[in-house]
Amino acid sequence: MRQTGGGATIDSASPSRSYFTEKRVGLGNNSYLGLSLPGSGGRVGSGSKKKKVTKAERLKLLQEEEERRLKEEEEARLKYEKEEMERLEIQRIEKRKWNRLEAKDLERRNEELEELYLLERCFPEAEKLKQETRMLSQWKHYIQCDGSPDPSIAQEMNTFISLWKEKTNETFEEVIEKSKVVLNLIEKLKFILLETPPCDLQDKNIIQYQESILQLQELLHLKFNVATEILLRQASTLADLDSGNMEKVIKDENVTLYVWANLKKNPRHRSVRFSETQIGFEIPRILATSDIAVRLLHTHYDHVSALHPVSTPSKEHTSSVTELVKDDVENVEKAISKEVEEESKQQEKQSHLIQEEKLKVEEEQDDIEVKMSSAEEESEAIKCELEMKVLSETVSAAQLLLVENSSEKPDFFENDMVDLFQFTTLGGVYHLDILELPPQCKPVKGWMIVEILKEGLQKYTYPPETTEDFETENAFPPIEVTLEVHENVIFFENPMVVRWDAEGKHWRTDGISNVSYKPNERLITFSLDTFGPVTLIQDAHINMPYQSWELRPLDVNKVLLTVTTVFTEIQIQIKENLCMLSSVKLKDKKHISVLEGTWMTPTPFIIALKEAGLNIFPTRYSHFYVVINNKVPLVEVKAYRQMALLSSTFAFGWSKWNLLCNSTKVVFKV
Prior knowledge:
This protein has helices spanning 16-22, 55-120, 122-144, 154-166, 172-195, 203-233, 285-288, 316-351, 358-403, 602-611, 633-646, 657-660; strands at 2-5, 8-11, 246-251, 255-261, 271-273, 280-282, 292-299, 423-436, 442-444, 447-449, 479-484, 496-501, 506-508, 512-518, 523-528, 533-539, 548-555, 558-564, 568-575, 578-586, 589-591, 652-653. The protein is of the alpha+beta class. The chain has a 7-stranded antiparallel β-sheet with strand order 3-4-7-8-16-12-13, with no helix packed on it. Helix 8 runs antiparallel to helix 9 (358-403). It is elongated. Belongs to the DNAI7 family. Residues 68-268 form the IC97/Casc1 N-terminal domain. Keywords: Coiled coil.
């Protein structure tokens, strides 16, 4: 069949038919050929009668289309199956490889855990060594026979205190000499409270030690007052030839005394400066004309602030573990004793055998004795192992207590009260007192006659409780005081001056004005409304948080810890159970400290650094005053323990990511 139209001719039998078949648009009954023939100027059938597609042709076209679709689907399925098989094969190979790695890692981990268990035995062994050292220190004190009491024995302490109370008429120099023994006893008692594990401290012992400390502190201050009174009775004989007033300075490593007695009562002599120092007072007219003495007793220690409470953990867990292990020990002992009894019964039976088997019986007896000795050795080994287990639990509980944060903030403090959990006293305490001048000694026919007042040394009340007899309102102005800051103390900022409130038993910031500090001369001047103990304080967390830290090995069991803060860089050497301050840098300049080069055990070392103003040691209340990323205590303790075990071989350092991770993770560089 031929069809013409638009100048185009198509032979139905020609191959061009397939061209139009593949390019059809639609397969319905009303389908049309919508393509133009090459070389023609119009659509197929546009100018002639359209061809009608038969049913057979439509079926054939549909069949071809279905076959092509099935072929494409089959190819796609085969391709998918091939890719899936390849993927599964790769996954199987990766899984097999991962399983091999896991098995190898598990094997390595088991070996490392066994090694770790062996290494961690050093913690209870170290605690056992500390216990033996404490026992040895008591023995050393006993064999010294130096006359000083054992601070841990209440009877000896009571005897020492009673005997010293009975001594009278001691000079200031004698009291200073005796104070060295007293301060040593107080220091030992504080170390006992700090170094003894909480599980080994009973409540009655804590109370006993704290009471002994308070009694020694009160008695020492009382002795200083009595010695001051004896000194002031001789003021007229010690008067200065130029001014006519008495001035005395006594210096010691722990105490410095400045005393001025107003003998001439010259109203124009209001400025008091002790010889060769800038320390002194500017007293008002009312005091310049009174029978008074001004005393500045600078104690390089703080016996005024209240004692910090001793941390005692909940002993439920430790006691339960201890009871459990004790039961195990008892069970082992019972089993072994039963074994020994059976062996001895056998021995008795064998002893009744006939004489002919005597040699055999002796051999069996030897075997029984060997078994009994081995059983006893096994019993001792098991008991030792269980004791180490108890000790390990105790050490873990004590270490956990060191890093645990308190859940409750310290008691609420008023605006003028000083929070000693946030601030720390530095440089000791300056006891400023205005005293009534006691009756003076009078020489009579080669004798010295002096009137001794029954009430002892009396303080002069300034300002007086009633001021009605005085004309002007400003008759009792604040007294200007100039003090010297202790040379071995570092202040990173200007120190704050606070006074002691005897009634409230705390430090306060009110009643002090016109404070000025000269860091080069280390002099601080301020005006005080009323006299009493004053001290200088600094923020206890001024060096926290650290900017960086590093722990680097130097030798076997010897490392160097470097802590960098905003104000300073501190290097500490650590070997075995000793610490030493290696160097201190302030503003990139080396600072010479008296602590450098002195090896000390950890607790005295930490206290010495705090007293020198180099406090880099957080407490359980520090998280209330410093913004940090608190960690779970157990995680922190485990990290410290692993660092301690590896510190002789690996170096450790801080990581910025530790601040960004959560509280259950610890990140640092190794």
